[in-house]
Amino acid sequence: MNYYQYRKKAFEYALKELLRQLSQFALMISTLFYIFLPGLVAGLFLGLGKVVQSDSVETANQMMVAYLLMQTLLLFVLKPVILDTPHRLFHFSLHSGRLKHLVADFTLLLVSHILLWLSLVLAFAMGWDKLMRAPHFVAFIVTQLSLAVVLLYRPQAVVWALGIAVVLLVLGLSNISYLVVFNAIVLVACWFKPLKFVYVPSQLNVWSFWLVYGLNNTWSLIWRMVIGLLFTLGVAIIGKERPELLHWYAPMVALIVLLLWASMCIKTTKLVQEHRLFWLSLKQQQAIVVTLHAMVFILYLLSWCLIVFVLDFDIFMLLTLLFMPLLQWCAARRPKSLAVCWASVSVLIYMIKILV
């Protein structure tokens, strides 16, 4: 077996293992996408259409940032699969040169980059003449590829660049100028030294415990925030095109974000149970559970407020806020029933909306 054959086998095995780990959420994911799949697919292609041609430069820039955020989220999950991170040092025992490593990394990245393939399909469907009339879309495809490569080796540069890119939206730059500035920021950020923030509380209590947990598990918070933001922006774009549909899609976003934050109680409750005797010895068992649910509720409340601010208030969105404690209880006590509970709440809210 040569090096490339090994990388292919390792990629296939790691991908199967990742899917196996996600299988515990299969019902939750299938329920979610069965209900909202048509709107999700329509939103993806509508978003790409807005990147190609939009009456507003600001809208096109927002959609480009949204797509880059989405691809970063997806590729961050797939990064250990692409690089075969657990066995990275073993690669050098098979082949010492870096060129083969880079070729294998780049090839597997291309195979995994679903959003890049969507853009390429649209580019081929447009044809050469139309594509030349939208040079910013070509620049966007190049940016998708370059940002993906940087994510593999300099992930913090991507975080810096995306953070600055969101701020740059207020400047109202043209599409080409925006992408040029963005790529320049990515290039400069590659030279930044990785920052490491370590927080050691002077006194451990229930609040400082969850603060330390959040700092050490930032990915668990970030991916929920990013997915919620992407759905909110996507529905905002749909609302501009079809205002009469906004009141149907707004509760959907609140429900999706409700599921994301409620599912956080599964892992955190397990953590509390693992250290149950420790908290009992401090007589803080009840307090740690209460603060857990309070912090998760606060995080959902902040996301809910953002949804209301962007999409406007809907009385049925308030129902999702009221059902949050029920979903939290279900995630903590009956995690296998969370998907069914969430689906029941979703159907109930939309049935009330239809009947009222």
Summarize the structure.
By secondary structure, the chain is mainly alpha-helical. The chain has two domains: 1-24 and 44-193, no CATH class; 197-356, no CATH class. It is 83% helix and 0% strand.
Shape assignment: globular
Number of helices: 17
Question: Using DSSP, what is the number of strands?
Answer: 0
Rg over CA atoms: 22 Å
Mean pLDDT across all amino acids:
84
End-to-end separation = 65 Å
Largest sheet: none
- Structural domain tally: 2
Approximately how much beta-strand content do the residues carry? under 5%
Into which percent range does the helicity of residues fall? over 70%
Structural class: mainly alpha
What's the SSE pattern?
HHHHHHHHHHHHHHHHH
Unreliable runs: none
InterPro entries: DUF6136 (IPR045614)
Keywords: Membrane, Transmembrane, Transmembrane helix
Pfam family, one: DUF6136
Transmembrane segments: 25-48, 60-82, 102-128, 134-153, 160-185, 197-214, 221-239, 245-266, 287-309, 315-331
How would you portray this structure in words?
InterPro entries: DUF6136. The chain crosses the membrane at residues 25-48, 60-82, 102-128, 134-153, 160-185, 197-214, 221-239, 245-266, 287-309, 315-331. Pfam families: DUF6136 (PF19632). Keywords: Membrane, Transmembrane, Transmembrane helix. The chain is globular, with a radius of gyration of 22 Å. α7 (135-153) runs antiparallel to α8 (155-168) and α11 (218-241) runs antiparallel to α12. The mean pLDDT is 84. The protein has helices at residues 3-22, 26-52, 57-83, 88-94, 98-112, 114-132, 135-153, 155-168, 175-189, 206-216, 218-241, 246-262, 264-274, 276-281, 285-311, 315-333, 338-355. The protein has 356 residues and is mainly α.
